[in-house]
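Following the same procedure, the fold was encoded as tokens, giving this record:
***
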Amino acid sequence: MAEKIKINTEFIKLEALLKYASLVGSGGEAKMFIQDGKVSVNGEVCTMRGKKIRSGDTVIFDEHEVVVE
């Protein structure tokens, strides 16, 4: 089941979202997983750690699904 994360800004960067959702312990860890192609955004692998994630986007990492509201 997807976890819902609410943001109060127009967007959040992908690496910040992984930290905010407690899926990784640090920004460095997030960077590594993203660059290794282990994160997908809206069904497509994303290797840009600065990717802007907006309300309605779905991020999947390590079998965790996060929906941004």
DSSP finds two helices and seven strands in the chain. Helices lie at 14-20, 27-35. The mean pLDDT is 96.
